[in-house]
Amino acid sequence: MSEIADTPLELDDIQSGILRPRPSPYAATYLLLRIDDRDAGRKLMGRLSTAVASVGNPSSPAGDTWLSVALTFQGLRALGVPRASLDSFAWEFRQGMAARARALGDTGESSPENWEKPLGTPDVHVVLVAVAPDARRLETALARARQALEELDGVTAIWRQDCHALPTQREPFGFRDGISHPAIEGSGIPGTNSREEPLKAGEFVLGYRDEMGGFPPIPQPEVLGRNGTYVAFRKLHQRVAAFRQYLEVHSSSPEDEELLAAKLMGRWRSGAPLARCPFHDDPELGADPRRNNDFLYRQEDATGYVTPPGSHIRRANPRDASVAGVVRLHRMIRRGTAYGPSLPEGVTEDDGADRGLMFAFIGTHLGRQFEFVQSEWVNSGDFLGLGTVKDPVVGASDGAGTFSIPRRPIPRRLQGLPRFVVTRGGEYGFMPGLRALRWLAELRT
């Protein structure tokens, strides 16, 4: 690693989509591209280097409206990146998400053979993500994408997914989304939990010290890897009707149904955390970004009588719980964007519509961040002393799942949890710095 590794974050070279939280409300579009001609692909990289906004200059092209770009391993190959450089990328990235399916819990109906094509195939080379506060400004970002693709016969758009904030600003299961975002040293972007110390920049951007005190392995040459990061894209179909049916069957009243939903998630539907209001929802708290993520567990709820140890948000981010010594090594930036029509309130029969979340998980260590959380925290309960018990909301349950809600004198135990979330596809991407995009454009191999 060169001596410049200890310099401050080079914000003008880091894609805005890496560190900036998405706007709220939001609209977004995912575009997948295939590179059929190497020269055309390189020309695209050059055009994108001026179309993608940086963290340091978010007002160019347009404030909370931006375009991000990621390349798959197959995409880097299609651009003609030298073999020595390809071999320097993380091995999970080189394998691709489809090859990592078993470790991620993508089995059965979530297995790659059932994925929506072309997700998980060698045809996916470039992932473009356009994000904006509304549909009108989203069109501005998409226009930049179209300009970058103009008259490039060797690059083909092969898939598109439009996303949006639901009218309730909630994800399809009905919970307020996009609440938790870590503070990152040197970014100038505040986190959403004032009690969480900022994380080292190297956990999210390559070329800087991480929580271990060293530097994450960086793709070579340094101009290619520095200021980039890895991203795991996931299309997750949500079985909203099945979720509602389960709550209804296992509850004694509408009030009990809402409490049960909160215990499974760890938050009330408004976004208010159980840790702050254990007995009833508080919509005002849920809507307040200064308070709805400002809590810890160790002193306030170490035993899980308020927020069950196996609940979704406690698994995804245990905060300062008993595993706190390693939690910071597994933190990621998570971004979910809803797709598909909302299921009308009160409907418990599936209408056949495809709805769910497009997720992006950002971090410099695919193995100890995204893959570890998926395999050890979401789809196993060993770290909680719960054995094989999975996350009750997003875990790879098979109809025999269980969930325990601590209470005195006898815990409340749920049986027969089905799979509420099905993986419809995914990709591992590398989000280069802006200088790296120009380097890719100028390749002559």
Order of helices and strands: HEHEHHHHEHEHEHHHHHHEEHEEEH
What is the overall pLDDT average?
A: 93
Q: What is Rg?
A: 21 Å
Give the tally of structural domains. Answer: 2
Physical arrangement of strands within the biggest beta sheet? 2-3-1-4
Number of strands: 10
Strand content: 15-25%
Tally of separate helices: 16
- What is the 3D form? globular
Estimate percent helicity. 25-40%
Going by helix content, strand content and strand pairing, the class is alpha+beta
Poorly predicted tracts of residues: 1-5
The main sheet comes to: 4 strands, antiparallel
Euclidean distance between termini CA atoms: 25 Å
Cofactor: heme b
Keywords: Iron, Metal-binding, Oxidoreductase, Peroxidase
GO molecular function, one term: peroxidase activity
Protein name: Peroxidase
